[in-house]
Design goal:
With about 230 residues, the chain is mainly alpha-helical. It contains eleven helices and three strands; from the N terminus they run αβααββαααααααα.
């Protein structure tokens, strides 16, 4: 049985509840797919259900939990098949976004991408899996935004947020090195700087697959089981 989460007594309570639950998800107190019940969490954290609900809404926004109508809120869990489907769709759509972004890229936009890369570098330097995932997502969101296609942005965001969140949890469980995140994003910036359509297509096409290859090659059919197996080895 897991130990009691520490109490929260300072305001704003919803923000502190968010940080507490985020840490609990990443340190393995909650497994992927596990339900998060508002009343139980409110009692354990000694705060109102409203504050817990606000915290869960923020966790949903960053892809760490999903809300299922008439069932409740659960820690994000994706099967291998779901990951494969999302990778395929993301690759196709992001290549389109990259080509469209190349048509609109400016020196200022390239500078903004370098700032986003700086955020990834800082997150890697402190070995924060969650912050790397969020900085990575913001880097790609900027490319989608530059594309000028709002519908494409929304489709990619819906596909990618849960994917980034779930994979970052599993990378944390497996203690995977984060160093590769820096160079792969630097290559994307260099491709945009080159102004060559084919180079942008190639780099974006090759960018995502290596990130997930370890999980997709796993013999474990259910990635929740992989997380449980890893935690049991601790």
């Amino acid at each position: 049985m897991r130990g009691k989460l520490f109490s929260i007594k300072n305001s704003p309570l919803s923000e502190q509840a968010y940080k507490t639950l985020l840490d609990a998800i990443f340190n393995g107190s909650f497994f992927p797919g596990e339900p998060l019940r508002e009343l139980h969490l409110a009692q354990e954290l000694e705060i109102s259900q409203t504050s817990v609900r606000e915290a869960l809404t923020k966790l949903e926004h960053v892809g760490l939990v999903v809300r299922v109508p008439n069932k409740g809120t659960f820690v994000t869990e994706l099967s291998k098949k779901e990951i494969e489907e999302r990778i395929t769709l993301r690759g196709t759509l992001e290549e389109i976004a990259g080509v469209e972004a190349l048509k609109r890229i400016t020196p200022a936009a390239l500078a903004d991408l370098n700032l986003k890369l700086g955020n990834i570098i800082r997150a890697v330097s402190i070995n924060s899996y969650f912050e790397v995932a969020q900085a990575d997502l913001e880097f790609h969101r900027l490319i989608w935004k530059i594309s000028g296609n709002k519908t494409l942005y929304e489709m990619l965001d819906q596909l990618t947020v849960p994917l980034f969140a779930f994979i970052s949890i599993l990378r944390r469980f497996e203690k995977e090195s984060l160093d590769g995140a820096i160079e792969s994003h630097r290559e994307i910036i260099e491709a945009f700087g080159s102004g060559v359509d084919g180079r942008v297509r190639e780099v974006i096409r090759q960018h995502s697959s290596p990130i997930y290859i370890n999980f997709l090659n796993s013999e474990t059919e259910n990635l929740q089981a992989l997380a449980r197996k890893t935690l049991l080895r601790k």
